[in-house]
Inverse folding.
């Protein structure tokens, strides 16, 4: 089965934040929570670059390993999701995540911060597909519809790619080769054998 992955081409990202807005609006993400964010490196200096980041849907996700109630799980296609009916809001996943992805709607003390929210790759959640509960808790289920996540679909420069890791890697390799830097970008299967 394909491993679903994101890739942001920093040579194309223009920091428009269209991906952030598409995710927030399309999934009804509450105020104070951002499932996706754009970070600018070397802002205002030569070599300035922007990158859109969200949950990396890690192959060996540390957030899953530390969850004391097994609220986090990984689908067969590699998408990491959280069961909001099980999450206790302890924050261990936030501490374990190297990307700072898990978000909590409230800033109160332990146990009062609410259940965790994160990027779902627009794959819904454990509630039945296309149910009102799934839409309310997790947002759209575009993967079940055969579509790419909203953030990637709305990227005006096609900097943000989403889908099968091998296909995404091939697209990126072709872009690198066209830029004249050679086809030295390794594919997903090469890096993660």
């Amino acid at each position: 089965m394909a491993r679903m992955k994101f890739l942001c081409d920093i040579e194309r990202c223009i920091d428009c934040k269209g991906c952030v807005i598409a995710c927030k609006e399309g999934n009804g993400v509450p105020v104070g929570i951002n499932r996706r964010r754009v970070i600018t490196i070397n802002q205002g200096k030569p070599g300035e670059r922007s990158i859109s980041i969200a949950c990396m849907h890690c192959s060996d996700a540390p957030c899953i390993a530390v969850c004391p109630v097994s609220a986090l799980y990984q689908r067969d296609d590699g998408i990491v999701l959280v069961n909001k009916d099980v999450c206790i809001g302890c924050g261990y996943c936030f501490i374990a995540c190297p990307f700072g992805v898990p978000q909590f709607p409230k800033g109160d003390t332990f146990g009062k911060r609410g259940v965790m929210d994160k990027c779902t790759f627009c794959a819904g959640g454990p509630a039945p597909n296309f149910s009102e509960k799934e839409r309310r808790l997790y947002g759209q289920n575009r993967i079940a519809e055969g579509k790419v996540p909203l953030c990637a679909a709305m990227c005006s420069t096609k900097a943000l790619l989403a889908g099968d890791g091998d296909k995404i890697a091939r697209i990126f390799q072709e872009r690198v080769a066209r830029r004249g830097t050679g086809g030295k970008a390794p594919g997903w299967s090469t890096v993660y054998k």
